[in-house]
Each structure stands twice: as structure tokens, then as C-alpha cells.
Amino acid sequence: MTPLHPLAHTARLAAEQKSADVTDWGDRIGWIVGLLLFITLVYWLMRQGWKWRGTLQGGLPPLPQSPESPGEPKMTLSGRYHGSTTAGQWLDRIVAHGLGTRSRVELTLTDAGLDVVRPGASDFFVPADALREARLDKGIAGKVLTEGGLLIVTWAHGDKLIDSGFRSDHAAEQAAWVTTLNDMVKTNDMAKTTITTEGTAR
């Protein structure tokens, strides 16, 4: 066999290298397309799961809205809303009526209750007599922070107890919220007991 001229040999090597590059690009494109399809499938399954959960929670009543005259603010807070779950079950996310949507939040506590204003998401109001407890915790529905990093407010809605998680822009103020909310709950409970006792005595 006649030896190839050096230039011809170089040209053949270049052609083989080019062919290999083309082959590599084809493999890469295939992997990228496959990855995109996989991500799309996972996203679609998550959306379907979200809708399915919302359907299961369809019996949850519409959320209360703030009264026209809620009274003077006791406390205010700016921060983030991280979601709601069935009380005591921090992974059982509630998505009905937009409660599963994370967002910025402005909280205002008055004698009438807790006003939850969420830019870009559904606002809601927790009447004072629906408040059950407040505590500091570290996680709720896929969001985990340091110990005591979340303000958890437990409230009654329909026949369900709900935990809603909030994170203040100034975390140090969350302890004061826990104290004030729990004092408010105790005061309301005492008032209910007094009314019941007086009614029974009559």
C-alpha cells in the first residue's frame, strides 16, 4: 500500500476528528433532550399531584376575609408565608384556596383576629375565636430552617385545625408574636368560659 502524503494524512486525521466531534454533539443533544423530557415529566407529575391534593381538600370552606373595621393593630409583621398543613402534621400540605402558595406576607394582629395579606396570592383572615395556638418551630411542608426559625399559628377552619408557617424579616420579633397570640387565645378562652358559666347559672 502506498504511504499517504503527510498532507493527506493530516487531512484524514482532521476529517476523523471532525466526524468524532459531530458524533459527540449528537450524543450530547440526545442527553439534553432526554433530560428536558424527564424534567418536564417530573414537573407535570408534581402539577397533577398538586391538583389531586386540591381536589381531595375541596371540602375546605372558603377562607374568611378581613372585616371592614378590624380595629387598631396590636402587632404587625413583614416577611414570608411558607405554607399551611394539617395541624400537627408538618408534611401534610394544604393547597386548597391558595394556602399552598408561598409568598411575601404582611401580618396584622387586632382584637378581631389575624389579617394575612399576601401580594400575588390570596389574602385571608383568621378570626380571633378561631386562633388556637402559636409557637416557634423549624419546619413546615418542605421548608426547614434553624430551630425556632418559623412562626407557626394554629387556627380552626371548618372542622379542620390548620398550622400556617410564617418567617419574619426580623426573626427576633417572632417570640413576641408567640407570647401575644397565646395570651390572646387564653383571654378569649376565659371569656368563653365566663359566658358559658353565666348562661348555665341562669
Tell me what you see in this structure.
- The mean pLDDT is 81.
- The chain is an alpha+beta fold and 202 residues long.
- It is built from 2 helices and 10 strands, in the order αββββββββββα.
- The longest helix is centred in the first third of the chain and has 51 residues, at 6-56.
- The termini are far apart.
- The radius of gyration is 29 Å and the shape is elongated.
Rg, please?
29 Å
Structural category is alpha+beta
Q: Number of helix segments? A: 2
User: Cα distance, first to last residue?
Assistant: 120 Å
Uncertain runs are none
Global shape: elongated
Helix content: 25-40%
Tally the beta strands.
10
Strand-residue proportion: 25-35%
Helix-strand pattern? HEEEEEEEEEEH
Major β-sheet profile: 8 strands, antiparallel
Can I get a quick summary?
By secondary structure, the chain is α+β, with helices and mostly antiparallel strands. The chain contains 2 helices and 10 strands; from the N terminus they run H-E-E-E-E-E-E-E-E-E-E-H.
What descriptors fit this protein?
single chain; alpha+beta; 2 helices; elongated; 202 residues; 29% strand; 8-stranded antiparallel sheet; two-stranded antiparallel sheet
